[in-house]
């Protein structure tokens, strides 16, 4: 089968790799029809993780079941399914508590928890930017889709990661009806957090970034765009909230946060959130931060540390939630909102391309070029 193989920093190729296949009775084999490129892939693509050359990417996957193992009860051949990026067993201590983002079985390293397809430090699992994907514990991990699945793939594929992840940010931030919410980052994840805040009834959603195309998308769903290359975003949020600050906030950028000129400052968004959110407000951090970052520009960051304004954070009595999103906690409900025509997360999709065009798509998306907001690859079908 063909797959998007990592060769080294900013070097990928689409080439033949061994076919994915059923290896255990509980496996499901999926022919991938839609698979997204994610901001998380870019950390690996840029060589800012220890993702091993020769492995292939792809954790935002949707496709059609072509084979099931003998131990699979629910999922049937021919059905369209969307897969949470978290691979989870369903029966470990964490999965039992709904923490499928920290499964203990799917992660072979005993000191770690959590697994994903085609991802650094998240187990040995192959990615889905390929024609076929092996889904372990298939009954637990597959979310089945209805009859409109094939034609509405661009909406449903967002259930694999970024829509539930954006929603999780607003859950950790405890966004409630009437709230005023600020979101740092208008990438795909930030835009999904903005959509989720709206679904939860926020009265005002403010989105901070500096890319005009991404800010326009935020505006298209009723959010207030704040361009931090032209204004001080903290002051802009205070101005919008009678000087009190937002009720809550979401971090959707991560450790490669930078100023508008491109200089990395991994503490920039967290400290701006502390300053933009009012006393006692909550912050949901879904942007990825890492325990070590050898490619960082300063010593602190190389050790996975940031200079966090803990004094102000403590003084304001704020709370912060963090980590990978437990996609399974939300994907069924969000699927039903899509199916009912209540929401269309595909508004962020800028490009739908065949798998062979992955190298150019990575290059453009990595540069956050104007108009490249979200790429869906189609290994099979179009
Ligand atoms: N927790 C999870 O489960 C989970 C899941 C998916 C993605 N992520 C992470 O979420 C983050 C965002 O992903 P994405 O796909 O949207 O990526 P992206 O890189 O396309 O988007 C990030 C956006 O942040 C903006 N940005 C950079 N510095 C900023 C700053 N100082 N202030 C405001 N905006 C700034 C960039 O201009 C860009 O538009 C990444 O770190 C990704 O790894 C986490
Ligand atoms: Zn992702
Ligand atoms: Zn588990």
Question: Can you characterise this structure?
Answer:
With 382 residues, the chain is of the alpha/beta class. The chain folds into 2 domains: 2-161 and 326-378, Medium-chain alcohol dehydrogenases, catalytic domain (Quinone Oxidoreductase, Chain A, domain 1, Alpha-Beta Complex); 162-322, NAD(P)-binding Rossmann-like Domain (Rossmann fold, 3-Layer(aba) Sandwich). Helix content is 25%, strand content 21%. The chain has helices at 39-45, 93-96, 138-141, 153-156, 162-172, 188-199, 212-220, 233-240, 268-276, 299-302, 310-315, 331-339, 358-366, and strands spanning 2-8, 11-16, 28-36, 61-68, 80-83, 132-135, 143-144, 180-184, 204-209, 224-227, 246-251, 277-285, 319-322, 351-354, 375-378. Strands 3, 4, 5, 6, 7, 14 and 15 form a 7-stranded mixed beta sheet that branches. Strand 9, helix 7 and strand 10 form a beta-alpha-beta unit. Helix 5 crosses helix 6. Bound molecules: nicotinamide-adenine-dinucleotide and zinc ion (2 copies). One zinc ion is lined by residues 88-89, 92, 94-95, 103-105. Residues 88-89, 92, 94-95, 103-105 line the site of one zinc ion. GO terms for molecular function: formaldehyde dehydrogenase (NAD+) activity; metal ion binding.
């Amino acid at each position: 089968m063909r797959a998007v193989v990592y060769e080294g920093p900013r070097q990928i190729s689409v080439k033949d790799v061994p076919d994915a296949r059923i290896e255990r009775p509980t496996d499901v084999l999926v022919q991938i029809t839609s698979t997204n490129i994610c901001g998380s892939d870019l950390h690996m693509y840029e060589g800012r993780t220890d993702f091993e050359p020769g492995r292939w990417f792809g954790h935002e996957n949707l496709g059609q079941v072509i084979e099931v193992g003998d131990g699979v009860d629910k999922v049937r051949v021919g059905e369209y399914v969307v897969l949470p990026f978290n691979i989870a067993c369903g029966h470990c201590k964490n999965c039992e508590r709904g923490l499928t983002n920290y499964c203990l079985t799917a992660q072979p390293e005993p000191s770690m928890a959590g697994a994903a397809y085609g991802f650094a430090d998240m187990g040995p699992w192959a990615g889905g930017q390929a024609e076929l994907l092996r889904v372990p514990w298939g009954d637990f991990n597959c979310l089945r889709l209805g009859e409109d699945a094939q034609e509405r793939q661009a909406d449903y594929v967002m259930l694999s990661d970024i829509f539930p992840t954006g929603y999780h940010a607003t859950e950790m931030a405890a966004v409630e009806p009437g709230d005023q919410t600020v979101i740092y980052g208008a990438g795909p994840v930030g835009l999904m957090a903005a959509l989720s805040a709206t679904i939860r009834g926020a009265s005002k959603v403010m989105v901070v970034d500096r890319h005009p195309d991404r800010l326009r998308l935020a505006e298209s769903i009723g959010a207030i765009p704040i361009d931090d290359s032209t204004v001080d975003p903290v002051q802009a949020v205070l101005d919008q909230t009678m000087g009190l600050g937002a009720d809550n906030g979401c971090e959707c950028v991560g450790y490669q946060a930078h100023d508008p000129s491109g200089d990395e400052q991994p503490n920039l968004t967290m400290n701006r959130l502390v300053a933009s959110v009012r006393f006692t407000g909550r912050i949901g951090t879904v942007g990825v931060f890492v325990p070590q970052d050898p490619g960082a520009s300063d010593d602190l960051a190389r050790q996975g540390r940031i200079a966090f304004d803990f004094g102000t954070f403590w003084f304001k009595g704020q709370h912060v939630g963090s980590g990978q999103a437990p996609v399974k906690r939300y994907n069924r409900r969000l699927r039903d909102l899509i199916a009912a025509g209540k929401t269309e997360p595909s508004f962020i999709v800028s490009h739908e391309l065949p798998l062979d065009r992955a190298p150019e798509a990575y290059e453009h998306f990595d540069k956050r070029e104007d108009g490249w907001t979200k790429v869906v690859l189609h290994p099979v079908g179009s």
